[in-house]
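Input for the complex:
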Amino acid sequence: MINENSGAVEKLSDPGLPEHIHRKTDVDPRAAKKAERQVSILFALSAFGTLLFIYSYIWIPEDKFIFLPITGTTNAHQLFLGLGLAMALFFIGMGAVHWAKTLMPDHEVVDYRKEQRSKDEDRAALVATVKEGAASAGLGRRPLIKRTLGLALGLVGLSPLLLLRDLGPLPGDELTKTNWNKGTRLVTDPGDRPIKPSDLEVGGVAQVQPAFPTGKVRHLDDIAKDSVLLVRLRPEEFNLDAERLSWTYEGIIAFSKICSHMGCAVALYEQTTKHLLCPCHQSTFDVTRAAKVIFGPAARSLPQLPITVDSEGYLVAQAPFNEAVGPSFWERDS
Amino acid sequence: MSARERLAGGTANFIDERTGAAKWMKKTLTKVFPDHWSFMLGEIVMYSFVILLLSGTFLTFWFDPSMKEVEYEGSYEPLSGVKMSAAYASTLNISFDIRGGLLMRQIHHWAALIFMAAMVIHMMRVFFTGAFRKPRELNWIIGVALLTLGIVEGFLGYSLPDDLLSGTGIRIAEAIIQAIPVVGSYLSYFLFGGAFPGEVFVQRIYAAHILLIPGIMLALITAHLMLVWYQKHTQYPGPGRTEKNVVGYPLMPVYMAKAGGFFFIVFGVTAFLGAVASINPIWIYGPYNPGQIGAGSQPDWYMGWLDGLVRLAPPIETHAFGYTISWNILIPGLIVPGIIFTLLAFYPFIEQWMTGDKREHHILDRPRNNPNRTAIGAMSLTFTLVALINGGNDLIATHFDLSINQIMWFSRIGIIVLPPLAFVITKRICLSLQRADRELVLHGRETGRLVMLPHGEFIEVHEPLPPEKAYLLTHHEQNPPLALTSEDAQGVANPQGIKGRVRSRMSRAAQEQIAKPTAKEVLEIEEGHH
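Predicted:
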């Protein structure tokens, strides 16, 4: 497709390969001898590195620490082990490269390329062979074999795929459920102690989990969706509608701690601005407005847990979360 | 004949009589490789892969890929008695109770960072010099596949210790999987064996990390090297170097010594980093707990740009008919990376389509002589760089006392505005460099010597370029854009229509050049005014 009369721009002539210039080591035996000594010293340094490695492994105690200018206090055992290994390896390399550069031939050699494309007759011969092979196998003449083979090959891959089915259960409605129910007590995390409103000062935050019946173990799977953050403000600081306000108790408001964006723990609370910040992608939620997203990639507020107190005065959930917690998924309906 | 020669001869005879290897070996040992520092970049990739295999094998002897809960009893006091997964506990064990274990862990992690960095720089070298052109398109695609696998392999690797930082990364990966329309939550449940985090993901990613992915990578690296071998290496332009020859040093002994030695140098430098530079100190992060997180959570650098894209995504989700599509996750997490890697893989063919050049090329381009390609490269790097910067926006904000909101808005606007700007500027710079080359060839080097002519005029003496240099600056091809007409010879309208117009426009952009001096012009100047 290249325009015909274009490549004809007159080129400067190629002066050809430059003349070879001898190195000092090529012409001066003393320089060559010196290079030989240098290479030997480099290899000897490598051997010294291995000795240092062995010494460190056996004789430097593993709990010995020394102070280094930039890295600070460092474990001496691991430091000298590493330095020994580094020396042993590095100087083998330096020796070999120095040897190649000073003493091995440095004449550039010319080799010739051929086009990758095969010769036309070879290509034609290949086509003929393939056609002949296919014809002798009767692939074209026996369509029944061709079709059933196609069917068999198409299906055989299904078996290993099917075997992958038991990798895990189906999600069912698990993604929308948590261990929070009507009347579930809020317990401290860590500590598992029920809490009263008076345990949390105005301006304070606390991480809580739902109380489990005795004997039930709390797994990481539970923490991954149950974690709740309590924040206590002065009641007049809220900017909520009547329903959401009724989900708070004496200025204490409870949100899912699992980010509605990608599920990280929304752990940073700025007391002055009353913002919650997710350290993963900086989604920022306004506590006074029911954890509405005010910045970042999250598209939904943090789910709010309705709370109140039970007859003994401990904080409990009024009801389960009214939406799924954590990151979005296809079957989520809001 | 000495005893040693008899032994060597006997061995060689034994092998050759059974394999006929002598002829092949003779050809191999005299094979010529061009010499240039930038050809070492690919070597660094290969050597760090070998280092990864060696140090990784060492780590498998003690690492326990299990999420079974254990109570830590090792020698690291601050975590004594803490409940954690066996994977995390065994990583602590390697770090504190196996002599040389921490060194090997750090060598392994540093080697992974060097592997990825060298791969990216090697790829940049191949791109900007046009080494991917025919016949090397397949090797370019293998390279893109290796880059992609490398990113996944690295991510899985640093997720294995099951610490708080890496668990957070896995949580994010789970959210991306879960966001896939229709099948997302099913896929997530299959991969994690149920709800996140479950109790199986470490053993599953372990199988992928130590066997599946490195196995595929090893096969691809082998194919990559075989193609380099078979097609012979490209070479930089210069006097005596043509499309038909390859100028360099023979494998035996010069290249063997240099390449073999270089392996030890790379390994030595990696070991030095492992000795003095702490990396991924998982004991500081603590075991993974989905209810906790460390501030300033950062992935390794090769994942950072992806995380940066996720961070700057606009908060958009669609809820309709009882289903949810999370554009804020899908676009930065899957769609944009998918488009980027597809374009990257097919770039050699896109360029062929733009230029219509389907010939073999073995002489490398100087980047300035292909301004369009160089500008496309600069544009892509700028895009990735803005994303990478945004991936560290929290650290930048805290270290430089800036507002995170402003950095985010800078990135959101910058990722759209800066890449095209980089394209335009780079193209202008390339054309200016071509202009400078032209000046240099026509008028020679400025010597800085001022001479007063008899009639009082001052001139600066210019020294003509040596012929080698003049050849280097003018050897390259300059082709006009494709002559795509909207009608064919019979006057029938071109059925290509808009496709043809787009191609014609792109071809014009691809071939924009400053005309290089011709031999005639040089001659005229030499004969004319001196």
